[in-house]
Amino acid sequence: DENRNGVCDDVEPRYRYSAKVVCGLQPDPAGLRLAPAHYATAINILNPSDRTARFGKTLALTFPPDGDQPGAVLSLGKASLAPGEAVEVDCIDIGRKLFPTGLPQPYLKGFVVLRSDQSLDVTAVYTASGLEHAAARCEPEPGCCDGYRKDLPGRCGKPDRGCCEAPPPDRCPKAPQCCRCGADTQFGTISIDVEQISERRIELRQPPPPRCPDLVVSDIGAPQVSCPAGAGSCETRVRVAIANIGNADAGSFDLRTVFDPEQSVTVMTPVTGGLAAGASASLAVATPPGGNCFDPDCTIRADVDSKQAVRECKEDNNSREETTPG
Q1: What is the C-alpha end-to-end distance of the chain, expressed in Å?
Q2: Tally of CB atoms within 10 A around 205
Q3: Domain span at residue 170?
Q4: Are 28 and 95 part of one and the same domain?
Q5: For 178, how many CA atoms within 13 A lie in the half-sphere containing its CB?
Q6: DSSP labels, 282-314
Q7: Number of domain units in the chain
Q8: Using one digit for the tens of pLDDT, what is the confidence trace for 143-154?
Q9: Which of 88, 171, 169 has its CA nearest to residue 122?
């Protein structure tokens, strides 16, 4: 899990394919959503890589419902393909897995969406067959006279197919009486279309930013020295500013302040209430009576959370050192 988002890299979806799907019968000649016909879709999936491909399948419906309302998103389960293997998702699979008692409408439309951890070859095959319908068909009636022949006056001419289909008045004046008409079944046109489904890369989900405190020493003020009883009674006072620049509260910790590190005068200041995220504080620190910090300069080092009681985002920014010339 290189991006630390809680999903193993070898199964995290990185590729998405959205294939249009149309299944079922549209019988209404007046329908404007889809032309009257039988429709079928078959989505073929091939794993061309040298690694096993794992992918999930969903159906996102666009019809039903009616109007401009989004349809349901339904799971078609998960699958895996070894290198070189292929599988198909078609209308029969959709009906069997999602609508075992029959489609909610005579037909459905939508998208089959695949999310895979490996690149796939995805091809959709669309077939449609127009509906059967009855059409009038006329044939010449045997032995019927369709008029007198111009080349032989008085002789009756025989009907022909042209006379029945579109008889000119001067050629076939009696054509309607010389034709035998009836119903004839016409079969719809069958069409097939093959489309390569485009591949889209899925951006890897990044982990949420860690929530943790981060304590720093933001400033060390100018030291002040007072020696009320002369040498050996000197006290050094300073204000040390600390801050929590993290995004989580810090519990109790301490501040260690070292005056004149060569003499190692150390003062421990507990911060028992902790420090909230984004908050800061200014702490007054004073040495016990003793020598003067200035010899001739005064160096002060402050270490926040010196005992590492708080687990922080960063542990290398807890210290600060300042030297004040004497």
Answers
A1: 55
A2: 12
A3: 133-186
A4: yes
A5: 24
A6: EEEEEPPSBS-S-SSSEEEEEEETTT--S--S-
A7: 3
A8: 554 444 444 444
A9: 88
